[in-house]
Amino acid sequence: MFSASSYTGTREENYEVVIRQLEALITGEPDWIANLSNASALLNQFLDNINWVGFYLMRDGELVLGPFQGLPACVRIPLGKGVCGTAAERRETELVPDVHQFPGHIACDAASQSEIVVPIVSGENLLGVLDIDSPSLNRFDEIDQKYLEKFVQVLVGNHSS
């Protein structure tokens, strides 16, 4: 069901396949951590040219490391700090072509060159962020943003606070 050969269409079609795969993985499973774990593994298998993919979860007013794929990462990120904290505070996706040009970038992995962070919001509640890093400049674009935002909405739709 999750082989690389599943991804033979356009980027948009491939993202739609991944979103359907996510739905199949999480439907009927109420555990948030289990679902985020499978979601990070699914994205890690699907996305090329990335070196980290995972989640930071809101805990007591700050972002705390959640399920991820990649090297060990920063454990806590204050709101408004770095790409993740900025996306969380603004509740807007941050698409960063060159992390070294982002004011206050937090370098958890020196190999990271570009990043996309999608906030996870349910109603008025900020649940956390999806964070994806790449060792290449300009790795992410508006297509990635559109479909990763849809991916996050599937997670939110299955989550019960």
UniProtKB/TrEMBL annotation:
Belongs to the free Met sulfoxide reductase family. This is Histidine kinase. InterPro entries: FRMsr_CS, GAF, GAF-like_dom_sf, Phosphatase_reg/MetRdx. GO terms for cellular component: cytosol. SUPFAM superfamilies: GAF domain-like (SSF55781). One of its GO terms (molecular function) is kinase activity. Pfam families: GAF_2 (PF13185).
